Amino acid sequence: MSTAATVRPPRVGLALGSGSARGWSHIGVIQALEDMGIRPDVVAGTSIGALVGAVYVSGQLAAFSDWVTRLTFRDVLGYLDIGFSGGVVKGEKLFNFFSEHHQNPDIESLEQRFATVATDMKLGREVWIQTGSVLDAARASCALPGLFAPFQHDGRWMLDGGLVNPVPVSVCRALGAELVIAVNLNGQLIGRHLTRHDISNQTLEEPAGDDVPEPAALAKESEAAAERSMWGKVMDYFSSPADGTAEPVPGFFDVIGASVNIMQDRITRSRMAGDPAELNLVPMLEDYAIMDFHRAAEAIEEGRRLVYASRERLEWLMGCL
Fold first, then answer.
1. Are the C-beta atoms of 160 and 151 separated by less than 8 Å?
2. How far apart are CA 223 and CA 209, in angstroms?
3. 120 among known catalytic residues
4. What pLDDT is attached to residue 28?
5. What is the pTM of this model?
6. What totals of helices (H) and strands (E) does the chain contain, helices first?
7. Residue 220: per-residue pLDDT
8. 298: burial class by Cβ within 10 Å (0-12, 13-18, 19+)?
9. What positions does the record give for the motif labelled GXSXG (predicted)?
10. 80-87: long-range contacts at Cβ-Cβ below 8 A with a sequence spacing of 24 or more?
11. What is the maximum span of the chain, computed from C-alpha positions, in angstroms?
């Protein structure tokens, strides 16, 4: 009597890429995968992907998702400790908050394999962090040049991992993944950036006909308008004066955002050409500015949409590899 061999499902790796505020879409991707019964065996993250990955593997994604969807722009400003020493934002205030309100287990104690990607500032080398606390590993990966200050890890100053490996497919492979799902946040952004002009010109829509908004809706729209105005003032502070041309002069965050997008897109194309993922997800969030961390709900929904749109391919991959 013959017994049919049990087919083992492939070891799934999830490569969470860099991309600043667009990284909240990683939350939606993970939620949708879990809804489908797909729990990655390996998680590797770069920059914002390292932060979301750290929260996920430590079992705190649901609470984290609730928190980020409640963030307002005022909240985001409150977490930014402006320093101008190595970067505009030191990052200590935000990560101290995470340490106080979230568990911070050691990577070695996790059920899933986990690693973050950072860049050794002195040597320019790619560093895979696979030991120590998950939040330290995430912080070392989140040091976007010019914006977030470098972080000292194991005696070395670390810069953002997106400088060397924006979508860490290679890390997932090295940690044993056979099927890699990659989330590339920078694939559709070349030539696009959200300027202070784009934000300051956003206006509230007038109600049509007899449609009179409820007081709560009016209050919410008023708050959103105030946040747009506040963000415009921040943009103006970091911008050059207009020169009279039709196109506004690029501001500080415009230059950083566009430069990082170009660099990471080129590096990602090169690396993934040699080691492509089995499934490549590219969230369509081209209107997100580099600091739009208060727009989490939209990004999370886009992450979920992408996974559900790829459901048929995912099921095929899970069954044939």
1. no
2. 23
3. no
4. 98
5. 0.79
6. 12, 10
7. 53
8. middle
9. 45-49
10. 83/149, 85/149, 86/149, 86/150, 87/143, 87/144, 87/145, 87/146, 87/147, 87/148, 87/149, 87/150
11. 85
Yes or no: say if 28 and 307 are a contact pair by the CB < 8 Å rule. yes
Q: Which two tokens stand for residue 44?
A: 């590797």
Of 160, 254, 265, 292, catalytic:
160
Please give the pLDDT value at position 161: 94
Low-confidence ranges of the chain (pLDDT < 50): 1-3, 87, 191-209, 228-230, 239
| CB 52 within 8 Å of CB 30 | yes
Question: What is the spatial distance between Cα 92 and Cα 142, in angstroms, rounded to a whole number?
Answer: 12
Q: Which of 47, 58, 141, 239 is catalytic?
A: 47
DSSP characters over 175-203: TT-SEEEEE-SSTT-TT----HHHHHT--
Token pair belonging to 210: 């007899």
Owner of token pair 């320093």: 83
47 labelled catalytic: yes
